[in-house]
Design brief:
The complex is a heterodimer.
Chain A lengths: L10 E2 L12 E3 L14 E6 L2 E11 L2 E6 L17
Parallel strand pairs in A: 1-3
Antiparallel strand pairs in A: 2-5, 3-4, 4-5
Chain B lengths: L20 E3 L8 E2 L9 E5 L4 H14 L6 E8 L2 H10 L6 E6 H6 L3 E3 L6 E6 L2 H10 L3 E4 L12
Chain lengths: 85, 158
């Protein structure tokens, strides 16, 4: 087991889920900070101990669809610019 | 606003013959595929270790999204055998270090509906009662497998 810290979630998403779009989805109010959630933004998504970097593909009223990237979060940390002070 | 099941013409894929889609959802209904579950498939796989707290949260979120369907639901995938489960682990569940594998017959014995929703091989495990669904999933005692396609946690430096 790794002792690496688990990245803080930006958006709670069940990465098993999909809808008609074929993409995982959640509600906007599942975001840690809803102002981070905008189309094209890169976020840390997941649930429990599962994490992925994902791009917000679409915000449809209060439903957010994301496209997760393969690989560990660290591989894509350069995309998470909002985390940089 | 239409009531009941409906099929907006603008959302019917042109490549599909009429009759191949039972209905396309309004916002409050999930799309259910016409093909029946159980023909050649006997395993159901879901990423994660089946934490009841997370299962409940997912089921409530699904119910909130599709209230007119009247069921709580959690997403999973259907496979014919362990070989297909392994493909699902590689292509759909790579982000999960472990997966829970259920026998379809055990889910049905627990009165959990296995509904072919959205795109193959996605399914929804559903029940009208939240507690029955969550407790039923646990009572099925799924096999917990290590996902050999998982990339590992990596090292995150915030």
């Amino acid at each position: 087991m790794s002792n690496a810290p688990i990245p803080v979630l930006d958006l709670v998403v069940d990465l098993n889920s999909e809808d008609d779009s074929g993409l995982p989805w959640t509600f906007l109010d599942e975001a840690r900070d809803p102002t981070l959630v905008r189309e094209g933004a890169w976020l840390v998504v997941g649930e429990g101990t599962v994490r992925a970097v994902a791009q917000v593909v679409e915000i449809d009223d209060d439903i957010v669809r994301v496209r997760p990237l393969p690989g560990p979060v660290d591989e894509h940390r350069h995309l998470l610019s909002h985390r940089v002070a | 606003m239409p009531t009941g099941l409906w099929l907006p013409e603008s959302r019917v894929p042109l490549s599909l013959p009429l009759g191949s889609v039972r209905f396309v959802s309004a916002d409050a209904l999930p799309r259910i595929r016409l093909a029946r579950v159980g023909t050649g498939a006997s395993l159901v796989v879901r990423g994660g270790e089946l934490d009841p707290v997370l299962s409940k949260a997912d089921a409530v979120r699904f119910h909130r999204r599709y209230p007119r369907w009247g069921r709580y639901g959690v997403s999973a995938y259907l496979g014919a055998d362990d070989e297909e489960v392994d493909v699902i682990c590689e292509t759909r569940l790579e982000r999960f270090a472990t997966v829970a594998v259920f026998d379809l017959s055990a889910l049905e014995a627990a009165a959990i509906e296995v509904v072919p929703t959205f795109r193959r091989p996605h399914i929804t495990l559903a029940h009208g009662n939240l507690e029955v669904l969550v407790n039923g999933l646990s009572s099925c005692e799924p096999r917990i497998l290590v996902n050999r396609h998982h990339h590992g946690p990596g090292v995150f430096r915030p």
